[in-house]
Amino acid sequence: xxxxxxxxxxxxxxxxxxxxxxxxxxxxxxxxxxxxxxxxxxxxxxxxxxxxxxxxxxxxxxxxxxxxxxxxxxxxxxxxxxxxxxxxxxxxxxxxxxxxxxxxxxxxxxxxxxxxxxxxxxxxxxxxxxxxxxxxxxxxxxxxxxxxxxxxxxxxxxxxxxxxxxxxxxx
Length: 171
Prior knowledge:
Helices cover 22% and strands 37% of the residues. By secondary structure, the chain is an alpha+beta fold. A hairpin with a 3-residue loop joins strand 8 (93-94) and strand 9 (98-99).
């Protein structure tokens, strides 16, 4: 599976690495546990999170999402009819949980990207430095899917940038 953030970014995914901590739980390096939709396929896994699956809230969300964490808006990047919002870890106090660790390691400079509409940016008053909450309802542990995405990304680079024919690459 892709081991670098570069490959994940190339295919437009947030990629989080961790290890199995139960049938449907992945523990990240900082100790945060993520609930995933499918059984964890291996001891060491990567979890792909589509930016469109990350929701941004001004207050701690309530509901069915099992994966919520405090964050700070690091950067906003407009892309046609969407805005990519880079979120960094933040120990924000929450009414139900006290001070919670973030999904990401604040000391490592980790970010996760959400993709929202310009209207959502305006309604939520999202600006760099804004304290927010992020959530993801479903995450998919990767093993074979990540391997396939890595293969496609590598083929794209080799055939697109280096001019090798796709038939030669697949051979």
